[in-house]
Amino acid sequence: MSDKEKWGFIINPVAGSGFAEEYAGIVQEKIKQHSLSAPVIFTEKKGHATQISKDFLNQGITHIIAVGGDGTFNEAIQPLIDKQNVTFGAIPAGTGNDFIHILGFSDKFTDTEWEIFWQQNTASMDVGKCNDRYFLNGMGLGFDAQVAAENYEEENSKSVKKGGKNKYLWHILKTIMTYQEQKMIIRHNGEESISHTFLNTVANGRRLAGGFYLTPDAIANDNYLNVCRMEKLSRIKRLQKLVRVMKQTHVNDPEVNYFLTKEISFEFDNDVPAHLDGELYFASKFKVSTAPHALRVIFNPKGEHYFKQ
Fold first, then answer.
1. Max CA-CA distance within the chain?
2. Distance of alpha carbon 227 from its chain centroid, rounded?
3. How confident is the model at residue 16 (pLDDT cuts 50, 70, 90)?
4. How far apart are CA 291 and CA 83, in angstroms?
5. What is the C-alpha to C-alpha distance for residues 202 and 150, in angstroms, rounded to an integer?
């Protein structure tokens, strides 16, 4: 590590149903082992990671590292887009931990992965943009957004015990039986169509919702986003498609519309929930595009990363 490097760490203590707070001690010990004099700031509320990143930038910090889940990473990178003199690092401590697989690391760092992390192998990755907000891994409208909405509501209810990944899977199964498709207008490649879509995912990564490979051949630096769409389906067909997604055999299904794009937009009659890296976002119009090579990240060149080299 050079003298010109300045590191800063953001830790979300409630990520992973509190696992990140326990993991913080390990992270702080690693910081000491590498003789880093680095600020370690714990988030205190939703959106706080974005403000901490801004503060770090103003302090001239060159390596901004977030410890938490996909939502924490999403917040932390918002001010870092197109700042190639700043490196972003992600240490997974969340529930789903989907984004970290883009970088070739596992859900929980092994000793070898810690060593690779500190070697600072970097790459510039594409980032998705939805209206005025960025996403790292993927965004969704329809079924998967409704799952995120119900999970968020329950996770933020003081009367309900947090359930982590198992609770999220419960919401998937419940919503697959109850979700009602809404009419949307889709604009893509100069064409406009009306659809009642069950699932609508636009992704930069392959894995979403804690391990579902909806876009299994996505590349994180090819300047494209991968789109996976399913039109209105019966309950039986929804379950069948879920099984095919789990087996990664859905891409060639005639009832699945799968393609690459640089820009696509969706319009509804009223505000609906979307998720950006699992975080809720409400709007009636969604303009989704790719921001090529917009974020410099630490990745694992020896792992199964999603970069084209």
1. 60
2. 15
3. confident
4. 12
5. 20
Q: Are 260 and 225 in contact (CB under 8 A)?
A: yes
CA distance 255 to 159: 40
Q: What's the DSSP call for residue 243?
A: H
Please give the sequence-ordered ranges of beta strands (E in DSSP) within the chain, or none if there are none.
7-11, 40-42, 63-68, 87-92, 122-130, 133-135, 138-142, 183-188, 191-203, 225-231, 256-261, 263-276, 279-298
Would you say 175 and 140 are in contact if contact means Cβ atoms under 8 Å apart?
A: no
Residues 6+ away with beta carbon under 8 Å from 282: 271, 272, 273, 274
pTM greater than 0.90: yes
Kindly list the structural domains of the chain, giving each domain's residue range(s) and its CATH number in brackets, ordered by start: 7-128+294-298 (3.40.50.10330), 135-290 (2.60.200.40)
Amino acid in the structure at residue 166: N
- Confidence (pLDDT) at 211: 86
